[in-house]
Design a protein that fits this description.
Order of helices and strands of chain B: HHHHEHHEEEH
Number of domains of chain B: 2
Oligomer: heterodimer
Helix content of chain A: 40-55%
CATH class of the largest domain in chain A: Alpha Beta
CATH topology of the largest domain in chain A: Rossmann fold
Strand content of chain B: 5-15%
Strand order of the largest sheet of chain B: 2-1-3-4
Number of helices of chain A: 25
Distance between the termini of chain B: 12 Å
Largest sheet of chain B: 4 strands, mixed
Radius of gyration of chain B: 18 Å
Number of helices of chain B: 7
Radius of gyration of chain A: 25 Å
């Protein structure tokens, strides 16, 4: 939604949003801003508003994705100015309120709307003029940071659950047809066409079917699912129910990662509200469709992100993947046909049905329509979550939106897709971010986490890090993954400690290919990607480690020490 | 000193009644036991095994598979240091080493002798924008430095 449309929609929803008050003050509270004391700032704001007798409702909203400028507070006057205050600390709350309510634009970071009534307004930019925000196309995140995630009426005021209403007025076949035409593809990583997956489950001849929302967001560096669930959980529930209707399921699950309990809490509360409004439960909108969703908190295992492992975990077993076929669409949870979709995929489904097909396909690349949320982290000026059309060049995301590498350092590589993805060097920064392009350069889209590395990061050390992760997270079931990753890690240990030889590089590559070719599930098949891509694009750094015993980033301390010791 | 309690047999039976006497409830019941006891006491798992009719070996297999479960008592405060990519790049391992040094933990020890702190490596919390990140119980601390760590430890000691 463009900023202009957002403001229009906001205007329409004003009666609900202001709830009889003249002002609305929002504070972005989510896992990351909590670490900066957002909850205390929220309380302080409430206190100050009461003390000053300001006629405002103070509301907790999600994080708008500008993680770098947290804590964010917004003051909105009905039909008036809408100011945003960033980098806010506890002590600054009274100053900010004092400034705004005495007619000054002091401290304001940006404005979404100006009314000309605040002094100095013209010197402060519009939010849209700030590249991090202005260069995005926000769909999944459109209401994140705007609405109260735990107030279903605010979501409704923006047309929430109209998507479900519209889907239920069509036949399941029509719904699946729309999803197929939207060219929506799974946002969890593999990019399988969503409509096609739905039709497999729909066509399975069984009475009992399940839909699972995979919220086991496990890739380090990826937090878009958490952000969406903490900021607008209803958009996920709406998409979930549409999926359930289309495939003919009666029961849904959301499987949430153990490390993200706030996400589970928000989803559970939102589900209760949806039930009380009749969006979940028996005979939804008076139709014969009945549906309910249960939230399951994982006990913690990275491999749970793999769909067959995830189902094993829900069934009460160790989360071990099994060979496919049979695919979950024919034999899934408890042996029944099961649809598994990622959080972001379902959020896109609700967007699609709320805004229509033409709107949905208006952005994106040729083979993948719509937007994708990417998380920017690592050595980057503006870490956060940004939503852009598929096919946007990496450079736009990292340099225009993310502000590039800080402190005058040099960009070295960007790691996409978590431990299963690859490291992409500067040469490819103008390549488009879509499933095919990333695959062609040895990486994957994955969940959409982008970790930026600069010249202070040692590429060999980072590649080794991913192996420590994947080898520890291997479920241990199949030999290539269990033994192969261990062997690769041993070689990498040798290299970073200064004991590597040129033959080790050959061995490493050979193991990597074997593990990729022969592992049972995607964890093992993709775990060698960081090694293979770094060997391909940064071979010189490996060679420096093994041949010259040099680490140009001065990271591998043991190697450096050894090189300095006199030879025996 | 911080003490942990075992659950009574009645408490375990009522958990089974709440979630249903079926295999798919097992993990959730174990999560509840751990929430109450702080870890999975062997005695509790034996009772659970008999009541829900699943072999103890199977329960042990699940307890050792998932990161969340522990078979040893936790300290009063749990400190988790993030080992996600962003935290790694920003020096999370140095925070980890310094923390262990401060708490005088050696080898495979993860809990201080006075049962005050347990330290763990964590996978990503998704607060990557503030890397390196550390969590004490439910409080997240971002942009960690050694100095900040010392202050935080004092707060909980």
């Amino acid at each position: 939604m463009s900023e202009e449309k957002l403001l229009q929609e906001f205007k329409k929803a004003e009666n609900v949003l202001f709830n009889g008050h003249e002002y609305r003050i929002t504070v972005g509270v989510s896992t990351c801003s909590l670490a900066k004391g957002a909850d205390k700032i929220l309380e302080k704001t409430k206190e100050e508003v009461a003390k000053r007798g300001i006629n405002a409702s103070v509301v907790r909203v999600g994080c708008n994705g500008m993680c770098y400028s947290e804590v964010n507070l917004e003051i909105i006057k009905r039909d008036g100015s809408w100011a945003i205050y960033s980098y806010l600390t506890f002590d600054k709350v009274p100053d900010v309120l004092e400034a705004f309510f005495s007619g000054s634009s002091k401290y304001a970071f940006a404005f979404r709307r100006k009314s000309g009534t605040l002094k100095g307004e013209e010197q402060v930019p519009y939010l849209n003029e700030i590249p991090f925000y202005g260069k995005q196309t926000r769909r999944i995140l459109e209401l994140v940071g705007i609405i109260d995630p735990l107030n279903i009426e605010e979501y409704e005021a923006f047309g929430g659950y109209n998507g479900l209403r519209s889907a239920l007025s069509k036949t399941p076949e029509e719904v699946i047809d729309i999803v197929k035409k939207s060219m929506l593809r799974g946002r969890g990583g593999a990019g399988f066409p969503t409509g096609l997956k739905w039709s497999f489950v729909k066509n399975a001849a069984e009475d009992v079917k399940y839909v699972i929302c995979n919220a086991d967001e496990g890739d380090p560096g990826a937090f878009m699912n958490r952000l969406t669930a903490e900021g607008n959980p209803h958009s996920i529930i709406e998409g979930h129910a549409i999926a359930g209707y289309a495939v003919g399921a009666t029961k849904g699950y959301i499987f949430v990662r153990a490390e993200k309990p706030l996400m589970a809490e928000m989803l559970s509360k939102a589900i209760e509200q949806a039930r009380s409004k009749g969006y979940l439960g028996k005979n939804i909108f008076g139709t014969s469709f009945s549906y309910d969703i249960e939230v399951i908190l994982s006990a913690g295992a990275f491999v749970c992100g793999e769909e067959t492992a995830l189902m094993a975990a829900i069934e009460g077993n160790r989360a071990m993947p099994r060979p496919r076929p049979p695919y979950p669409a024919t034999k899934g949870l408890f042996g029944k046909p099961t649809l598994i979709n990622n959080v972001e995929t379902l959020a896109h489904v609700s967007y699609l049905f709320r805004n229509g097909l033409t709107n949905f396909v208006s952005v994106g690349s040729e083979k993948s329509k719509g937007t994708k949320v990417f998380c920017l982290a690592g050595n980057i000026q503006h870490p956060g979550a940004a939503e852009v059309p598929l096919g946007t060049p990496l450079r736009t995301l990292i340099f225009d939106i993310g502000g590039g590498v800080p402190k005058g350092r040099h960009f070295k590589a960007v790691q996409t897709g978590g431990p299963s993805g690859g490291c992409i060097p500067e040469t490819y920064l103008d390549y488009a971010l879509d499933y095919e392009t990333l695959a062609s350069i040895g990486s994957i889209m994955g969940s959409g986490g982008l970790v930026v590395l600069d010249n202070t990061s040692c590429i060999v050390d980072v590649a080794r890090y991913f192996l420590t992760f994947t080898s520890a997270e291997s479920c241990g079931q199949c030999v290539p993954c269990r033994i192969g990753l261990r062997k690769m890690l041993e070689i990498m240990d040798k290299i970073v400690q200064g004991d590597g030889t040129e033959n080790d590089l050959f061995l490493l590559e050979s193991w990597a290919r074997k593990v990729a070719d022969s592992s049972l599930c995607a964890l093992g098949q993709t775990a060698p990607n960081p090694i293979l891509t770094t060997l391909k694009y940064f071979r010189a750094e490996y060679e420096e480690h093994v041949r010259d015993k040099k680490c140009r980033a001065n990271r591998c301390l043991k190697l450096i020490l050894k090189a300095k010791l006199p030879k025996a | 000193m911080w003490r942990l309690k075992l659950l009574t047999e009645e408490e375990i039976v009522s958990l089974i009644e709440k979630y249903g006497n079926k295999k798919s409830s097992l993990i959730r019941i174990m999560q509840e036991i751990q929430k109450k006891a702080g870890y999975l006491p062997k005695e509790d798992l034996s009772v659970l095994s008999q009541q829900i009719n699943i072999p103890l070996s199977k329960i042990y297999g699940i307890a050792t598979f998932y990161h969340q479960f522990r078979l040893k008592p936790f300290g009063k405060h749990t400190i988790q240091v993030c080992f996600g990519t962003a935290c790694h790049v920003k020096g999370g391992d140095e925070i980890w080493d310094f923390l262990r040094e401060k708490l005088r933990l050696i080898g495979s020890e993860d809990t201080t002798n006075d049962l005050l702190f347990t330290v763990q490596k964590a996978r990503c919390f998704g607060a990557c924008s503030m890397a390196p990140v550390m969590k004490v119980d439910n409080d997240i601390y971002g942009n960690m430095t050694k100095e900040k760590l010392e202050e935080i430890l004092k707060k909980y000691s």
